[in-house]
Design goal:
alpha/beta; Aminopeptidase; 16 strands; 2 domains; manganese; 4-stranded antiparallel beta sheet; hydrolase; single chain; 8-stranded mixed beta sheet
Amino acid sequence: MTFATQTFEQQLIDWRRELHQNPELSGQEVATTARIRHWLESAGLRLLPYTLATGVVAEVGHGDKVIALRADIDALPIHETSGVSFSSQHEGVMHACGHDVHSSVILGAALLLKEREDQLAGRVRLLFQPAEENFTGAKALIKAGALENVSAIFGMHNEPGLPVGTFATRGGAFYANVDRFVLRVKGKGAHAARPHEGHDPIVLASQLVIALQTIASRDIDTLDSVVVSVTRIQGGNTWNVLPENVELEGTVRTHRGDIQKQVEKRIREIASGLASAFGAQIEVEWFNGPVTLINDEKWAAFSMQVAENVGYKTQTSELHMGGEDFAVYLQTIPGAFVSIGSASPYGLHHSAFNPDEALIENAARYFATLAEQALLKN
């Protein structure tokens, strides 16, 4: 194996740093795929011949029962400012979500499982998934057949707000529905000195932003989780002219399908009402993103028990308002998604995100143990 001349931990860290220096965006992970394929093949892992543009699926063990472990491999369009010695060599692209860490963890689990392959009570399938950030990778792997005969699947995300050595998960709803909206306001342009001759779309857009915030505070039960955020406003191109159009964009996060539908309905109603009041038009475009990630209760409890047994400090996670493509797998088969503390001083998707690499080896050993023991269940 390629790590024979150095410690297991250092090999995983070296792989993580090589991935970190060479990040690739969703669907473009060609070199990343080649690296992971090479490392797996060098360790004697079987690569499965699925038709994938990017991404790798490997397997270890023998028998009818199959458990899957998943890592994500894509990066983000972010200019890195972390200052680490192994910073991204690709300008404007960064592993700012820790997918390089996730990949090294599951690579480590693969090596450990290979060492005890003859003792496994079945097969462990290792999914190195592309395009998590644009929520297309899980569907691509499922379409290729990567979940065939799999009885349960497990995955992780590093959690910068938790100390290293801390583990968290929960049964049932965990990560949120992620929806995107675009509101196109069409008014009537005019000279800024004669606003009465137009229908000012900037004032309307401002009223719209305020009105949307009442959805969470006044339309939805306060015990239900919902976030409505306007993240972009664009309109006008000079200082003394009222523009014709303003465009707003944002996101909605919920954990229940009925709440998701209710929020969309209220956004459309508010847009229609304000357009009428201002004598303007508002077009609403809605994009459904990944669904709520719903952990299987049994497998979530099992994953936490294994974590406790191997020495993690465990806790029940709070609801997470972020989205996660892993949710698509859990619509097809049961499993559990977990959080492992990475203690970064900056959060996910931040240009200075810097997870503590001390988490990697222990997480690799955890996932190898989890897969091995999951094969013995039922």
